[in-house]
Amino acid sequence: MTLMEWGALGELIGGIAIIVSLIYVGLQIKQNTDALKLSTVRNTAEDLADLYLVPAQNSELADIFFEACRISMRWRVLIVCGFTGSSTSSFAPMRMHTINSLAVRWRKIRFGGLQISSFS
User: Fold this and answer.
1) Which residue has better confidence, 46 or 112?
2) Where are the domains positioned within the chain?
3) How far is the CA of 4 from the CAs of 12, 13, 15, 16, 79, in angstroms?
4) pLDDT tens-digit profile of 21-64?
5) Pair 106, 115: CB distance under 8 Å
6) According to a count of CB atoms within 10 Å of the terminal CB, is the N or C end of the chain lower?
7) What is the DSSP string of 30-51?
């Protein structure tokens, strides 16, 4: 074989190696993406379990939690039915006042009266 033939063979082998490595990297990225999705689902499930565990352990917190859920659901029904009110509507301030008072009660019971600035 001449030097030109060896060079052409080397280019062919190099091209095949690049294609194989790109396929391998693609598979690794897919595996990583799948693992990340599963991790996100698991973390979300754990967070939801923690969220529901606190009210399950304290009846006062359960009352506050379900009252907040009830208020939130009623507000969603109003929005879905097409009533959102105008900017001067009294529903939005009343809702915020009620939710803020529930949040204050929650903090007092859950954190033993500690002052916590916000739950943003």
Assistant:
1) 46
2) 1-57, 59-120
3) 12, 14, 17, 19, 75
4) 999 999 999 999 999 999 999 998 888 888 778 777 878 877 87
5) no
6) C
7) HHHHHHHHHHHHHHHHHHHHHH
